[in-house]
Every structure is written in C-alpha cells, then in structure tokens.
Specification:
Elements lengths: L3 E4 L7 H8 L3 H15 L6 E5 L2 E6 L5 E8 L2 E8 L5 H20 L14 E2 L6
Parallel strand pairs: 1-5
Antiparallel strand pairs: 1-6, 2-3, 3-4, 4-5
C-alpha cells in the first residue's frame, strides 16, 4: 500500500499542514482527512491531472477545497492544500513548483561530512512520529 506524506519546503514549512491547521471548520478537516486516507489506500476520489504529473483532488464541501499531489514511486507526495476554483490556476502552478523543488532536493548528492543535513523532503504521517 502506498504512503501519503506531506511535502516540506527548505525553510521547514509544510504547505499542506500550514493551511490545514488554519481551518476552523471541523467538518472540512474531517473531509480532508478522509480524502487523504483514501488516497493512501490507492483510491482516487474526484482526481484530475493539472499537468506535469501533478493531480488536483477536489473535495466537495462548502466553497470547495483542493489538494494537490504527485506520485513518487509507490508513495504519494501531498504538495499543497488550498482554496477553491478562484485560485485554481495559481495553486496548481505553485504545486508544480513544489514538485520541482522536491525532485531537485531528492536528486541532490548527500551533504559532505560536517555540513548540516537538509530538512526532510516529506513530512511523515502522524502515525510515524
């Protein structure tokens, strides 16, 4: 079974988590969490490609919410959680930028001895911490 993990920027911030914790609506959080779990199980609820291998997952609740992700082998990199249709073009472009950064850091050679390790590329799920 695949594992869905959250993309982490070089500054340590997590675009998915940053937006998720700011949501005040508990029902919206529950729907997002359910969608996240479905993706982990290989299910594809309301998913469409936005180009560059990045996929948009629409969560139909209230004004709508979108989650952007990309497969990395068998695992799923959750790149971004964001707003509704109004910001869709900007959000998908940002998700593609996150994916490019993730790939570049993953391909980079390991740091030399004595240099600090780069931050994790994907945030582990809550069960792993």
């Amino acid at each position: 079974m695949s594992e869905a993990r959250e993309y982490v920027r070089t500054d340590g911030g997590c675009p998915f988590r940053d937006h998720f914790v700011d949501l005040a609506d508990a029902s919206a959080k529950a729907r997002i969490d359910t969608t996240f779990r479905k993706l982990e199980q290989g299910l594809t609820p309301d998913v469409k490609s936005v180009g560059g291998g990045v996929h948009e997952v629409r969560i139909e609740y209230g004004p709508g919410c979108r989650l952007y992700c990309r497969n990395d082998g068998v695992d799923l990199a959750v790149l971004r959680l964001c707003g509704d249709k109004r910001t869709q073009d900007e959000d998908s472009a940002t998700a593609k930028t996150h994916w490019a950064d993730y790939r570049a850091r993953k391909a980079a050679p390991p740091p030399k001895e004595g240099h600090p390790q780069p931050p994790p590329r994907l945030r582990p799920t809550e069960e792993q911490t």
